[in-house]
Amino acid sequence: MDIILKYFPDLTEEQKERFAMLESLYTEWNEQVNVISRKDIQQLYERHVLHSLSIAKVMQFKPGTKILDVGTGGGFPGIPLAILFPEAEFFCVDAIGKKIKVVNGVAQALGLTNLRAEHLRVQSVKEKFDFVVSRAVTAFPKFVSMSRSVVRKESFNDLANGILYIKGGDFMDEIANFGDKCTLYPVSDFFDEEFFETKKVIHLAL
Predict the structure, then answer these.
(1) E-strand spans in 2-130?
(2) What's the longest Cα–Cα distance across the chain?
(3) Are residues 192 and 183 in contact, defined by beta-carbon separation less than 8 angstroms?
């Protein structure tokens, strides 16, 4: 939990309480449904919570922003972002139903009224959103083709509506065809830990 306060020192008491609850909630759920590896559950705040919050260092979602988290798994990046931006709306979807059960269970325990989750593929989503967020569920061009249709055109945030994608490793070939619509933000610019050295947030304006 200290690692969250290190980079987000201005949290409200409610936000601090919710972030502090995540460890016990995910430990308990992980015993029923394996959504986080046993090794990573020890590093929950660094490798999942803070990793998800790298998006918040790139984009401060304004009240009323609608965000779709595609391939959310156990609720990342959606749940940490929903805690941080209580006036934005989050919809988490995943093709695996038992993972959505975890997301709904955690959100309910936290009292997150700005987040909902459904067992759904992005291709079946009918609503429109300002941003689609995800943590590297597939190759970037494939992800863009799957999800671009749900992004609405009119922007009111500081960044143009589009995709915010967290990815590690070398993926320059994956973004080559998107030109100046694609901006890379090294996560190591925001967080000191070695884990983030190769991680980037990709913003693709749509």
Answers:
(1) 66-70, 89-94, 115-119
(2) 44
(3) no
- Structure tokens that stand for 176 in this block: 């080559």
Reading the block at residue 135, the tokens are 């943590």
Distance CA 204, CA 178 (A): 8
Check whether 38 has a pLDDT greater than 90. Answer: no
The three-point CA angle 106-39-134 to 5° equals 50
Shortest CA distance to 75 belongs to which of 66, 64, 83?
Answer: 83
The fold adopted by the segment(s) 2-205 is Rossmann fold (3.40.50)
- Token duo for residue 194: 């070695």
Q: What's the mean pLDDT when you consider all of the chain? A: 96
- Using DSSP bridges, classify how beta strands 200-205 and 162-167 pair: parallel, antiparallel or unpaired: antiparallel
Confidence grade of residue 39 (pLDDT, cut at 50, 70, 90): confident
Q: Which of 26, 31, 114 is nearest to 73 (CA)?
A: 26
